Predict the 3D structure of the following.
Amino acid sequence: MPQPLSTPNLEFLRTLSVLYVEDEEEVRNAMTHFLSRRFARIDVASNGQEGFALFENGRQDVVITDIKMPVMDGLEMSSMIKSIADDVPVIVVTAYNETDYFLRAIEIGVDRFVKKPVNPSELVEAIQKSTQVHMQQKQLEKASLQLLNTLQTAIGALSRAIEKRDPYTDGHQKRVSQIATAIAEEMKLPKAQINGIRLGAMIHDIGKISIPTELLTMPGKLSRIQFELIQTHPQAGADILEGVEFPWPIAQMVLQHHERLNGSGYPKGLKAEQILLEAKIIAVADVVEAMASHRPYRPALGLDVAIAEVKTQRGVLYDAEVVDGCLKVLERQDLRL
């Protein structure tokens, strides 16, 4: 016994725009009349070519299409639509049961099938279910973006608080974040990972809150004991962030940003694959920015010296792929140091 169809959410349906593509005039006219009473806007085409042109101009919320049509069939049109708007649901209406059509449709990413002759209630339910899934996904993406913006605002505030204590490195963390982000993008890392690197770099020196201000701003060379105190800031930063649940390993980025491939870094003396890729990227960005900028104990060494440093120590202190990405970014002059 067939299951009863769920009651459609009429208010939700009235917010949607629909692209309807059908070559049979009688069917097209009847279905257009039915759909136009239930949806905000109906755009109608008689073949795939016309349908794709309408979609490019209107970007409708949902696409309903027949398969076999002149000029361009419905699956070819669906493939073109999915290539530019994968999040738009496509519902195929067909009287054909050939396996080839279904395999093509699945490969394209068609969301639902409705058989001819069309049961209008079944079509409406298919539209509602497919669009709600996509709308829910959009809501999740929006919520994730809001969370990212909130985290970025909070981390930006922390970064500014740190730099208020050390005017000589004012903006250092922000510039390191810009360089690290550009390197990560050059390396074509996933967007989520790039976001984590950007935020981790913005507070990579948060542990300097535990260092006396007079030591951070002291001109001249530091004594061994003073330098050892400075070297505690990565661990102090990781301790500050301990227990804070980020979607990325930010505490470890902070802890490891002074580690080096050959184990000569601090605070743990980690080597090669023991070091997070994110920390390797921040390390190179940190070195380049620090050497190119003024410090209390020395004038700026300049970008040429910074580039020579990472080139010379490529594969020794610094990850080779990260260095290559950094050099490409600097060659394009994407950043101002």
In short: The chain has a mean pLDDT of 86. The first strand starts at residue 17 and ends at 21. The first helix runs from residue 10 to 13.
